[in-house]
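User: Can you predict the 3D structure of ATP-dependent 6-phosphofructokinase? Sequence below.
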Amino acid sequence: MATIKCIGVLTSGGDAPGMNAAIRSVTRTAIYHGIRVKGIYRGYKGLITGEIEDFETQHVSNIVQRGGTILKTARCPEFCTPEGRALAYETMRTHGIDALVVIGGDGSLSGAREFAEEFDIPIVGLPGTIDNDLYGTDLTIGYDTALNTIVSAVDKIRDTASSHDRLFFVEVMGREAGFLALNGAIASGAEAAIIPEFAFEKDQLAETIENGFRKTKNSSIVLVSESESTGGAMKVAERVEKEYPQFDVRVVILGHIQRGGSPSAQDRIIASRMGVAAIEALLEGQRNVMIGIVNDALVYVPFSKAIKKNKPIDTDLVEALRILSI
Ligand code: ADP
Ligand code: F6P
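Assistant: Sure. Here are the predicted structure tokens for ATP-dependent 6-phosphofructokinase:
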């Protein structure tokens, strides 16, 4: 196994609060171990075009508290092609980068897996996405902050919903995963969540209404995951207007507000711990793994497992929401 002298770090896909804390941790831990660091801008795009800068400890000063990513991020269709990845490999060679730390979601880690296998490059991934949809980790970087953003938004919506006796459908992000909607609903006292995991199993809207929805309250809030399978909040509200016209319905789409803002303490801590673990993993000879966190312990999850898109929703949470919304 060749010694790693220089690592490249990049953020890719949707940004997530805490990515900066992860970049800081990766950079400082590498330098601590005598490894040089190159910051790669705009994800895989910068790896192809060579938008790369030598990073010293001061490059990552004063960023642990900042949302977004100082390295910028991008979606890069070219990296999905063998030609694009070959260009990226050439850039790595030109800049003397021996290994990569990729901070991103499901797509970014799928790309990392292909790239690592094709060119035999050591790559370690960090789960950076508000969606919390990577398998093998209890948490992803950015999820907790996004959840808190949702909760503070729903608290405000509750005031107007109850003043007007209205039914609100609040659409949250998650990209075919219901973690934000389900836990957001529990934390904000919403009456129900309509999530992709059950979209084909049951009629969640009808069930919510038939279960005595609004029995004891004059206003209600339902969180809806943005997704093709749920149809999103607009579609659900259109259905209510047709099938249950007694409700005065409104829709709020929280959108990209969920991706911004200063990271929560939890996101800063997991990002910092995962960054340290990423460099230690590379030094141990680990490759093609994502750093995960399970029961507060750091674990290595092979890329092939992490990206399987089958992270299960905890049914206790579904039951808790059902009980608490009576
Ligand atoms: P996220 O990482 O947040 O899930 P995307 O799904 O948009 O975001 O993926 C980010 C980038 O990762 C894509 O623009 C592309 O460059 C790369 N990528 C995604 N899937 C693959 C794949 N199967 N092969 C190679 N690269 C991929
Ligand atoms: O993966 C993170 C995420 O915010 C998803 O929840 C959402 O579906 C998607 O990215 C939106 O991406 P874009 O940046 O293209 O609007």
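Residues 6-142+263-308 form a domain with the Rossmann fold fold (CATH 3.40.50.450). The longest strand covers residues 6-11.
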